[in-house]
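Quick one: co-fold with adenosine-5'-monophosphate-propyl ester.
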Amino acid sequence: MTNNPTIQELSHEDRAFPPPADFAANANAKADEYDKAAADRLGYWAEQAQRITWDTPFDTVLDWSEKPFAKWFVGGKLNAAYNCVDRHVENGLGDRVAYYFEGESGDTRTITYSDLLREVSKAANALTELGVKTGDRVAIYMPMIPETVFAMLACARLGAPHTVIFGGFSASAIADRVKDCGVEFVITADGGYRKGKPSGLKSVVDEAMEDCPEVRNVLVVRRTGQDVAWNDDRDLWWHDVVDRQSETHTPEAFDSEHPLYIMYSSGTTGKPKGIMHTTGGYLVGTSFTHWAVFDIKPETDVYWTAADIGWVTGHSYIVYGPLANGATSVLYEGTPDTPHRGRWWEIVEKYKVSILYCAPTAIRSFMKWGRDIPAEFDLTSLRLLGSVGEPINPEAWMWYREHIGGDRCPVVDTWWQTENGSILISPLPGVTETKPGAAMRPLPGVVADVFDDEGNSVEPGNGGYLVIKEPWPSMLRTLWGDEERFKKTYWSQYPEVYFAGDGAKIDRDGDFWVLGRVDDVLNVSGHRMSTAEIESALVAHPKVAEAAVVGASDEMTGQAIEAFVILRESAEDGGDDVVAELRNHVRSAIGAIATPRSIMIVPDLPKTRSGKIMRRLLKDVAEKREVGDVTTLADSSVMDLIQKGVAES
Ligand code: PRX
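Sure, here it is.
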């Protein structure tokens, strides 16, 4: 039932690592958090909500009367940007560093909370001048630079939900998202630095805008100084508009359920889903988990989430969680191997990073590059390590603990999803005895379980479907403009229970092991992609008659995209170039992250008598295994033809 059979092995693990005694003694979250939450779950969340400054206090913790549409902290009013910025300055912490920005090429900026307040206020004034109003959606397509955070918080300040689009997405992916949520205002940059070169961002937005006539302005940050095309009626430089604004701005309080942002994520159909988060619950969830899971001590820690702001991990643990807690974070623009493979460790040493959060795929790259590289740097500032985005194999977990954490740092494997808003299953670093590869336990206040097909909890030692049985504050509220899809995707498998789409196992000790997706969602280097999305990109190409995409296990990226394509008759003699052409086509339709590792041209696809493609068999081919049971195929000779073709290629 999992995409990745090797992951099955994960759940046999006898090694266990208790928290170091001094860590446990000083930990933010102690074991009694579980008891408190179990005794009174909603009371526990009400208590966590006190981490946030409310302009008007809430009167009801949860309104679950219109299931599955939850309302949290009902009646409460607050401003997310005020909580992330102003209140820290008001509390005398204006000189504390909010971000150490490190550009890929080595340029740096230190941004204090006072600086942040000034920059966000100016940006909010600029957006207001340009006609952005409460409720308007604003798209942000940016590199990892401080202005990305300023832009997000300026939107939050005005109650204008942002939709940040990962900088690796293509023009047509931008256009789809902009149109889906009715964006009229876009913020971008000329480019960013990636792998030592300036990348083009404005040029991609320009292309997208050809399809988005309703966008009235594109605000452009100058990052690289590269030449960009300019549309005088539409384009504005950030520095022309923002720099001259007043440095003060009065934030308005919004309803707890006011939309904070929309983040598009891949589902099981071709169309990405606009996952909507609201203000109060999301901020409570991110701030609480950042406190409990990352044990943040804002006075002394230097915290680093090495992820992109364009994904939910960046939203929750580069921007909202750390800022709500008044923490000091590192913001790094570039890739781990530019200009050299010790770049991350150089950054840890330079800023004395104490907490590092990243994806297993990065850890596996570091393993491949060898332990000698981190060994050249002083990593003794580290005290806690986190992992997110995909199952972490025990070898990578152990390597991370040993070679990065010097055997002294707890490792927290955190399970959650874009939909969840914040971490739901994870060890508490000062409490939990961790096992390499296990996300361990639902956090206090979270009620998770593993169900069988009938909706019964599985017995310890067994696998099934991961579900969340009670609502949680930072849960998605809906899919933008598509309530039916929201209900169908998450709430229709079992009544009143959230279906995560992941396979999981509870071991004999009651600990959770998340095994991977059970649907047609792929996880490539911690990035979520849907098979259907890639298939529809492929069939949109004039030479393609039919396509099937599977995720094959890959040592480095977790899964890799493998496509099987039937060409149209007219294209059959398309020559060797057709594969390259199709790879480029997917890249420009979705983005480089969706480029298939390989594309096999096949004469036919394995289908059941009812016409359903049996991806399981294609996966066997892609993973070079013996092909499984073919008896349900309409034509069982198809697999012979495919295998013959693969052997010859
Ligand atoms: O399959 C699970 C996997 O990533 C999916 C969520 O992807 P996304 O919404 O892009 O969010 C990623 C970052 C929060 C999940 O359905 N996943 C995430 N974390 C883990 C994981 N799988 C196993 N272990 C994890 N710690």
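If it helps, The pocket of adenosine-5'-monophosphate-propyl ester is lined by residues 265, 312-313, 388-391, 413-418, 439, 500-502, 514, 516-517, 523, 528 (CB under 6 Å).
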